[in-house]
Specification:
This protein is an alpha+beta fold. It has three domains: 4-97, Rossmann fold (3-Layer(aba) Sandwich), CATH 3.40.50.20; 125-188, ATP-grasp fold, A domain (Dna Ligase, domain 1); 191-284, 2-Layer Sandwich (D-amino Acid Aminotransferase, Chain A, domain 1). Helix content is 34%, strand content 20%. The chain is built from ten helices and 13 strands. The longest helix is centred in the first third of the chain and has 20 residues, at 23-42. The protein starts with a strand and ends in a 16-residue tail after the last helix.
């Protein structure tokens, strides 16, 4: 009997007019779903595509899969991504990726940072402003960067997001509060090199070759416009001297563990003037579009083709269900 794999995918609303709409990201998700289906079928398994919506539990019960590949970034918007993981936990079917707790900790950036700081993982100093009229922080040195509290894909980050004065800070904070209806995260801006680093989980989580973000002159961070227009180049493996690479890997691996991530994640870091890596973002559901997304690029640089990557993630999920595991011939060797 062939393995039955349910791929839970994000339902892209056709008529989103809010500021969190992400047409570019929607195209990536659609391409990823096609690639996942092809990879699963190439492995010799059944692929059942199931929309991530409020009827998810009933549809999973009908499909009765052996394992679920979770590629759903939320129902209607990103804020419900943890709830999708929670629904999958309720379903009792094993599923790829992190559970609800890790998704909450990674999505809500102030929580992410509190956990990291508690465990002595470097992350920029921060404050949160929750409503218009609250006093602006005065205990963080400029420049600062302002972000919505719980968005991804650089949504809500523009050329104005890095500020150098109290007036600029007040204006962009009020813009975030008004347009995104969520608290504004205010961070110390770390101005050095930026890397995005994949972790491949399992019994012994493995750090994939870091991807360096090579910004153009005049652009030193990922804005929504830059990301949606593919406006930066990347290099993988990045040119990093061994001692710095070790420091980045240790920081990323510790962040992965203390946030209770599993199977896979992508963690963004920036270097300060002393080459200390600071965690600036954690993505528990990184993009997987082959040939485009940073995570599969890093996996390929490590010698792991997309089909092997999919098999490894399915193996990881199935290892949490003791009586069934994909054959070792499909496992990714460590």
């Amino acid at each position: 009997m062939r393995l039955r794999v349910a791929v839970v995918y994000t339902v892209v609303e056709a008529n989103h007019h809010n500021r969190t709409a992400n047409p570019h990201g929607a195209k990536q998700l659609n391409k990823t779903n096609v690639a996942l289906k092809e990879a699963i079928e190439d492995l010799g398994y059944e692929a059942h595509m199931i929309p991530g919506d409020f009827d998810l539990l009933r549809k999973l019960d009908q499909a009765n899969p052996d394992v679920v590949f979770n590629n759903c970034t939320g129902i209607n918007d990103k804020s419900s991504q943890p709830q999708v993981a929670g629904m999958l936990e309720l379903s009792k079917f094993p599923f790829t990726g992190s559970g609800q707790v890790a998704n909450v900790l990674a999505l809500y950036k102030p929580l992410t940072k509190k956990v990291l700081l508690f465990h002595n993982v470097s992350t920029p100093i921060f404050e949160v402003v929750s409503k218009i009229g609250e006093p602006m922080p005065t205990n963080i040195s400029y420049p600062l960067i302002v972000k919505p509290e719980h968005e991804g894909s650089s949504i809500g980050i523009s050329a104005k997001s890095v500020v150098n004065s109290p007036q600029e800070l007040k204006e962009i904070v009020e813009e975030v509060l008004t347009n995104f209806r969520q608290p504004a995260l205010i961070e110390e801006f770390i101005s050095g090199r930026e890397f995005t680093v994949g972790v491949l989980g399992g019994d012994q989580p493995r750090i994939l070759p870091p991807v360096e973000i090579l910004f153009d002159v005049g652009s030193c961070f990922y804005s929504q416009a830059v990301k949606s227009q593919d406006g930066v180049q990347t290099k993988c493996p990045a040119d990093i001297e061994p001692q710095l690479l070790k420091s980045i890997e240790e920081t990323v691996l510790k962040a992965f563990k203390v946030l209770e991530c599993r199977d896979y994640a992508r963690i963004d870091v920036r270097l300060d003037a002393d080459h200390i890596p600071y965690v600036i973002d954690v993505n528990t559901l990184p993009g997987l579009e082959p040939g485009y997304s940073d995570y599969p690029k890093a996996a390929k640089a490590a010698g792991i083709e997309f089909k092997e990557l999919v098999a490894h993630l399915l193996n990881s999920a199935l290892s949490r269900r003791s009586y069934f595991c994909v054959g070792a011939r499909h496992a990714v060797p460590f």
